[in-house]
Design a protein that fits this description.
- By secondary structure, the protein is mainly alpha-helical.
- It has helices at residues 17-26, 32-45, 49-54, 57-64, 70-88, 96-99, 107-117, 127-135, 145-155, 161-175, 183-201.
- It folds into 2 domains: 17-117, Endonuclease III, domain 1 (Orthogonal Bundle); 127-201, Orthogonal Bundle (Endonuclease Iii, domain 2), CATH 1.10.1670.
- It is 62% helix and 0% strand.
- The mean pLDDT is 88.
Length: 202
């Protein structure tokens, strides 16, 4: 996957840790493309946790209404911003425990922020990572998201966790999507690339 997607990276547009945090919360059950269409006007209106915490929920809803679950997400991001202001001096915390204490933030979101914003090794398991891991028998088909994460962490060296997460997302999004396609062809291409790499190394 590294050869296929050597430059894989987060596709959510952001300028800082706060914007990334909010964008990841908004991305639940929504494409990154969809989120990137609403965040410019959202962050123009509310560029800081203080501004977002003070905002009216209805106004936030209006700015993100083209994405799925926008009503609940508007409440989550306002509460998250309020948490940042009241508990963390308007700064995005840098530990999993503190991140997961914020409104709307689960383990996946915390892992994305730790990895992308703070350059800490982490594997965020989204639908693509979960599906690809199970397609290639990296973990059992009935594995939970946490079990998928743990399986990948055991199989990969820590320094590769973050980039592997991005490459698996790209592979699942652009090469081996969830919609009907020739999965065997995906496996064949990946196997060929791995064989070529092994041959070149010998």
């Amino acid at each position: 996957m590294g050869v296929m997607f050597p430059d894989a990276k987060a596709e959510l547009t952001h300028k800082n840790a706060f914007e990334l945090l909010i964008a990841v919360i908004l991305s639940a059950q929504t494409t990154d493309v969809g989120v990137n269409k609403v965040t410019p006007r959202l962050f123009e209106a509310y560029p800081t946790p203080e501004k977002m915490a003070e905002a009216d929920v209805a106004e936030i809803m209006d700015k993100i209404k083209t994405i799925g679950l926008y009503r609940n997400k508007a409440k989550f991001i306002k509460k998250c911003a309020t948490d940042l202001v009241e508990r963390f001096d308007s700064q995005v915390p840098k530990t999993h425990k503190e991140l997961e204490s914020l409104a709307g933030v689960g383990r996946k979101t915390a892992n994305v922020v730790m990895s992308v914003a703070f350059d800490e090794p982490a594997i965020a398991v989204d639908t693509h990572v979960d599906r690809v891991s199970k397609k290639f028998d990296i973990c059992p088909q009935n594995a939970t998201v946490k079990q998928v994460e743990e399986a990948l962490m055991k199989k990969l060296p820590k320094e590769l966790w973050s980039i592997a997460h991005h490459r698996m997302i790209f592979f699942g999004r652009y090469q081996c999507p969830a919609r009907a396609h020739n999965h065997e062809e995906c496996v064949r291409k990946l196997t060929e690339i791995m064989a070529e790499q092994k041959s070149a190394a010998n």
